[in-house]
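Chapter review: from sequence to fold.
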Amino acid sequence: MRLRRPATPIESEHDHMTNALPTPDVLTVYGASWCWDCRNATRYLDSVGATYRYVDLGADRAAQAMLHDAGYRAIPVVVTTAGTILVEPSERQLAAALGTVGR
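The C-alpha cell string follows.
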C-alpha cells in the first residue's frame, strides 16, 4: 500500500505536515523496505552517524494505521525529538532537522 498524504492549497508536496504524531524520545523514521526514499533517508542518517528508530510500516500495522489516521499518505515520515514532522525529506532537510547543516 503506497501511503500518500492529501494535498492542501497551502502546503507544497514536501512541507511539514500539521497533523500531530507522538513526539518520540529518539528520531523516528516511518518507512517501508520497498520505498526508495525511505532507503535514501536511512542511508543518509547512517552516513552522518545519527541515532534513530526505524519503524517498518510493512510489519507494523498499528503504526501504519496511526499515520493513515493522521493524514499521512507519503513515506518516509520522519519525526524528530522536538516533534518536527518531515514527509519525504531531502538530505538537506534531514541535516537541518539534525542541526548538521553547514558542518
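Two observations follow directly from the output. Strands lie at 28-31, 53-56, 77-79, 85-87. Residues 28-98 form a domain with the Glutaredoxin fold (CATH 3.40.30.10).
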